[in-house]
Amino acid sequence: MRILVTGGAGFIGSNFVHYLIDETEHDVTVLDKLTYAGNLASLDGLPEGRFTFVKGDIADTELVDGLVASHDAVVHYAAESHNDNSLADPRPFVDTNIIGTYTLIEAARKHGTRFHHISTDEVYGDLELADPERFTESTAYNPSSPYSSTKAGSDLLVRAWVRSFGLEATISNCSNNYGPYQHVEKFIPRQITNVLRGQRPKLYGTGENVRDWIHANDHSRAVLTILERGRIGETYLIGADGEESNKDVVELILELTGQPRDAYDHVNDRPGHDLRYAIDSTKLRTELGWRPQFQDFRSGLAATIDWYRANEDWWAPVKDATEAKYAAQGQ
Question: Looking at the domain 2-182+214-241+277-294, which fold is it?
Answer without folding.
Answer: Rossmann fold (3.40.50)
